[in-house]
Amino acid sequence: MARTARGKGLHAGYAHVRFGGAVLRNRPAMRLILGYTFHSWELLGMWAWAPAFVAAAFAVSGTASLRAAELAAYVSASFHLMGLIASTSMGRLSDRLGRRTVLFGIASLSGVCSLVFGWLIGWPLAVVFGVGAIYGFSALGDSPVLTTALTETVSPSHLGAALAFRSLLGFGAGAVAPIVFGRVLDLTNGPGATPTTWGWAFVTLGAGGVAAAVCAYGLGRERLAAPQIVTSVNR
Fold first, then answer.
1. Would you say residue 113 lies in a domain?
2. Which domain holds residue 97?
3. What backbone phi and psi angles, to 5 degrees, belong to 226?
4. Residue 39 to residue 114: CA distance in whole angstroms
5. Taking a C-beta distance cutoff of 8 angstroms, is the pair 215, 35 a contact?
6. Which of 103, 101, 92, 116 is nearest to 205 (CA)?
7. Which of 151, 159, 169, 218 could be disulfide-bonded to 37 (CB atoms 3.0-4.6 Å)?
8. What is the count of structural domains for the chain?
9. What whole-number distance in Å separates Cα of residue 233 and Cα of residue 93?
């Protein structure tokens, strides 16, 4: 009986932790969750298809097919390394400038890269690699800032639910984006031919970047201001 009473007490004590509508009614949190969803759409779609696009760029330049695939793998790996640099640097920058400012800036840059990148097929490889490096940097740069901002806008009792909901939507969108990309790629190229028109497929990813920027822009300045560092002087 005591065990039952303790069980009821524990259940009652944690009843407020249930997901319910607490997260859904938190407008800043929902904007961040939607921003993460659009961010994942763009990022995971880019990661899935960037190697094939870079290989196509090598092939158009006259590189042999096997060699083009090998070089594309190395170049695409360098895009991931740029993303790792972005994760650290953008987190630090958001501490100084504020979450909203960095989220809007980096999502806007990533969206522009998505809208441009696919149309660079046939351009000099140096241009493709340069834009790709910026693309890899910006596509991942807002990920840690989105997570940090979410932890700052949700109460600890609902943080687990908010992060779980964010992951469900984000990775769900990231799973669908490569499929949509591939379908658009097929529709904008002749059947059976090697794709030479990649721009419209990357535009589908750019829509996610633009939407993420819109979500960031709508965040209240007062809710996502840069953390204030308070120092005290012993007198």
1. yes
2. 25-217
3. -65, 140
4. 12
5. yes
6. 116
7. 169
8. 1
9. 26
Neighbours of 167 (CB within 10 A): 14
On the 0-12 / 13-18 / 19+ scale of CB atoms within 10 A, 52 is middle
Among the listed residues 135, 36, 145, the one whose alpha carbon sits nearest the alpha carbon of residue 89: 145
What pTM was computed for the model?
Answer: 0.83
C-alpha 68: how far from its chain's center? Answer: 28
Asked whether residue 15 is domain-assigned, the answer is no
Residue 86 lies in a domain: yes
Instruction: Establish how many alpha carbons lie within 13 A of residue 190's alpha carbon, considering only the half-sphere containing its beta carbon.
Output: 4
Residue 64: CATH number of its domain: 1.20.1250.20
12 part of a folded domain: no
Would you write out the chain's pLDDT as a tens digit for each of its 235 residues?
Answer: 444 444 343 334 444 545 567 888 899 999 999 999 999 999 999 999 999 999 999 988 877 677 778 888 888 888 888 888 888 899 889 999 999 999 999 999 999 999 999 999 989 999 999 999 999 999 999 999 999 999 999 988 889 999 999 999 999 999 999 999 999 999 999 887 778 899 999 999 999 999 999 999 998 754 454 444 433 333 3
Answer whether 127's CB lies under 8 Å from 9's CB: no
Distance set, CA 181 to CA 19, 48, 124, 131, 191 (Å): 33, 9, 24, 19, 16
Q: Could you please report the per-residue DSSP string of 151-200?
A: HHHS-HHHHHHHHHHHHHHHHHHHHHHHHHHHHHHHHTS-TTSPP---HH
**Number of H-type helices and E-type strands within the chain:** 8, 0
